[in-house]
Design brief:
Layout (H helix, E strand, L loop, with lengths): L1 H13 L5 H6 L6 E3 L2 H9 L6 E4 L13 E2 L7 H6 L4 E5 L4 H9 L4 E4 L4 H14 L3 H22 L5 E6 L1 E2 L2 E2 L6 H8 L2 E3 L10 E2 L1 H7 L3 E5 L5 H6 L1 H4 L2 H4 L3 E4 L1 H4 L6 H13 L1
Parallel strand pairs: 1-2, 1-4, 2-3, 4-5, 6-9, 6-11, 11-12
Antiparallel strand pairs: 7-8, 8-10
């Protein structure tokens, strides 16, 4: 037991995460706070719902998470966090750098993940499994992800890739670049992401550029723009994807959260692109 706890402490040190409570008491954490929806999903998936004592107002999956104490929304409430006396607080680095820097000044126990690819999303799940002593469950979650991803790969292996534009912002036109895990989702589904050549996580396009490269398929986050708006706008109608009805409206939470549910986005996009 002591050896196992020593490994956890060493792992957290190497991950540059603060885990002072374990170092001081040699006890596994029992009170968790998730500061972003994707990490709430993972903690619940690991069967830790009873140990989650705080989430954000945006944590909507699974639905039971909405009953937990709220620690903020876009900005995390430091006073509320402290009042809940957490053993470990989970953050997503790229989205929460400011909060992470603030919390480090108060020496609060944190664990930070920062996946930029589907492979790194899977590794984040395994890492969280280690620090919460749910390794076997985490390994099973990743195994199921791999099985489903491999099944898609087998079905589309002989299909030609289709040029895809993923619209995540309309003013200006914004998509995802190669350093974003969503780029992997499109690729694993058999698409060629037009933003994938950019090193920026969220590159912007002009309509002229989009029309010039004329994607074969258009993926649009639901709620961003309607089908009627696309069809009534002459600029969108100049695209082959719109004229050929190759437009998929996809749930933002499915494709934009680094969780096991991203496999559902891969399956949905693959089915859309390759029938």
């Amino acid at each position: 037991m002591v050896k196992k706890l020593s490994f956890i402490i060493l792992f957290l040190f190497l991950a540059s995460s603060c885990f002072a409570n374990i170092e001081k008491t040699l006890e596994l954490p029992k009170r968790y706070i998730s500061c972003i929806p994707s990490l709430t999903e993972i903690l619940y998936g690991l069967g830790l719902e009873d140990q989650v004592v705080g989430v954000t107002s945006h944590c909507n999956f699974p639905p039971e998470a909405a009953t937990k104490e709220k620690v903020g929304g876009i900005t995390i409430n430091l006073e509320k966090i402290i009042s809940l006396k957490p053993d470990l607080i989970f953050f997503l680095e790229d989205a929460q750098k400011r909060d992470i820097d603030k919390f480090r000044k108060f020496d609060l126990p944190m664990f930070v993940v920062n996946p930029h690819s589907v492979a790194e999303v899977k590794q984040s799940i395994l890492d969280i499994g280690i620090v919460t002593q749910r390794s076997e469950v985490a390994e099973h979650m990743v195994s199921v992800m791999n099985e489903r991803i491999n099944a898609v790969a087998e079905k589309i292996k002989d299909k030609p890739r289709k040029k895809v534009f993923l619209l995540i912002g309309s003013r200006p036109l914004t998509t995802v670049g190669k350093s974003n895990f969503i780029n992997d989702i499109v690729s694993l589904a058999g698409g060629e992401n037009m933003g994938g050549l950019s090193s920026s996580p969220y590159p912007q396009f002009s309509f002229e550029h989009l029309i010039m490269h004329d994607p074969e398929a258009l993926l649009v986050l639901k709620g961003l723009i309607s089908k009627e708006e696309l069809q009534s706008d002459s600029r969108w109608n100049s695209l082959s994807a719109v004229r050929n009805n190759m437009v998929l409206f996809i749930e933002p939470d499915l494709i934009a959260r680094p969780t096991p549910r991203l496999v559902g986005a891969i399956e949905e996009i693959a089915l859309f692109l390759h029938k």
